[in-house]
Amino acid sequence: MLRRLSPLFSSTLNLNNPFINSFARSTSRVPLKVPSLRFNTNLNYTPSFFYSTTPINTNHTRNSNKMTSEHLQKIDAYQAALMNEECILVDENDNVIGHDSKLNCHLNSNIQKGLLHRAFSVFLFNKEGKLLVQQRSPTKVTFRLNWTNTCCSHPLYYDLELEDKDQIGVKRAAQRKLGHELGIPPSQLPLDAFSCLAKVHYKAESNGKWGEHEVDYILLIQKDVDITPNPEEVADVKWLDKDELYTMIQNAKLGEGKEVGDSGEVYVTPWFKLIVTPSGGDQSLLEKWWSFLGSDLKSLQDLRVQHYV
User: Fold this and answer.
1) How far is CA 56 from CA 26, 59, 97, 122, 158, in A?
2) Annotated catalytic residue: which of 85, 161, 181, 214?
3) Is 214 a catalytic residue?
């Protein structure tokens, strides 16, 4: 029996995880109004701040070692806490093959060995046809202070977000993370309003230790929504029309391997640039989809994995 919990932002960060406590004691940053996280060594992790459900039974095991304090050094306590989430491991055709922690999935040492996980990227438009973009917070583990699409994250390894039919599991994850990062109420994001149009396989290094290697589900939704950004996740937001977005992209840089500061330069995430930038002189994926807003987006759906690695 599924039970939806509210409100999403009802308590401060739970620091019961032994790896997190040492960082909490050494930092003056105190996260405010963020989801309560459950630190459970059970691999069937359920995000308790959004759903309550019976965990699935599985014989899958982790591919790599458990989190270590060495890997968590210099990570903000809030972000370190999220490293305990269990991501869905897939092969290059998006078949589920197991699960592993968010931390292990984002270590370049594991990515170089082929570790690949499922992700999603949401492009949320308002009724005027403007796209909501966000600047990632300065405490993010990868691509900090990069501008990107509305929301980028991962479905987690448990029953509700593993469900494949009509990509409903990924849509549930998107609804959850839009609440977590941007404070958008789930009631404003009905699952049937999301259109899953593509799957993109890409790999990108952020810095020497961290990177991304994902099969990324691209979700579009057009809704007028209420936004209350979570500063632990989001540094800034903008609503952009098509011309404004492409001006941003033309002047932007990729921030792999760099610490992005207050230089005035604009950096964008590699997956965002991949979706927005035309390939081979054709329209970009986003430009083609944008022109179909308000009509039948499903006619554009192509769920064969597109490889950009």
Assistant:
1) 36, 10, 15, 26, 6
2) 214
3) yes
